[in-house]
Amino acid sequence: MKQAIQNALYNPVNESIPDVEPTCSTGDCIWPHFSSLAVCAQVANISNRLSSFHVSAAVRAPIGYKVTLPNGAYLEAGQHVMNITTLPSIVGGWQRSQSNATLAFFNESSISDTAISNFFVIYRKTTNSTTVDDFGAMEVLLHWCVNTYDTKVVAGDAVTSITSNVTRVVTNDGTILLSNNTTELKDTSDPSNYTETGSLVLRPMNGNVGNNFTVESKAKLALDMYLLSVFGGTYGKGFGRSYSSDAAMMISSALFDQPSQAHATGQTAEDIRLHCMEIAAQNMATSMTNK
Q: Which helix (DSSP H) or strand (DSSP E) does residue 5 occupy?
C-alpha cells in the first residue's frame, strides 16, 4: 500500500491513473458487474473559512502574514507559500470523530466517519498578498467506500467504468455493526467520548449481508497513521523552490504549476487549482484501490 501511495504522489497531477486492466485471452470478454472495497476521494474549496489575517509590526519581515482555519490548520506566509496539515485521529488517547474534524463534509457522516486521511491545504494565490482574500484553502478527504464496476474487453481494448459508488456503513439504530457481531454506540458530541475499536463493515449497493466488505481495525489504524506522516509539509519560494515532503511537491504542482495555463484556457486559476487537486486526490484513491 505504501508503494501505491508513492506512485500516486509522483504521478503528474494532470494525468489520471487508470483502473486495473483485466486479463482476456480472446481479446473480447464481458463480465457481470462486480463490487470491490475501494478508496474514494472528496475535495472542497474552503477558502471562505479562512480568518485571522495578521500583518506583523515589521511589514517586510519574512513572516508577515498568518491565516488560519477553524480547526487550527494555518499558514505563516513569508518564504512559505503553502502548508499541508493533517489533524491526528487520536486525541488524548481517544479516537477523534472525523465528523468533528472536517470542515466541508460534516453533513455527510457516512463519508467523514469512514475517513482514512483528512488533510487541509492553505496557500497564497498571489505573490504580493495583502488581504486574506489573497489566500486559498482546500480540504481533501480520502475514505473507504464500495465501488461497483462494469468491465469488458472489445478487440483487445479494456474499458472499465464505475456504475455505483457508495459508502454504506452497516448500521442499526444509531450503532455500528462490528465484525464480532456486537454493536457500539456512537457518541460524537464530544471527541473524547468517541471510540470505534472494531472493524469497519461496508455494504455495496443492493448488497446483502453476504456481500459485506470488512476493514480490520489494525489495518485501519496502520493506514491512518502512515497517511498522517505523508500528508504534511510546506512549499517555499525564494531563491529556488523548496519542498519539505513528497506530498508538498505533488500538491504545489497542482496549485502553482498548472494554473499558469489559466489565461490560455479561459478558466480562472482557482478553477484549475480545484480541478488539479481533484485529479491528484482521485489518483491517490485509484492507486490505493488498485493495490
A: helix 2-9
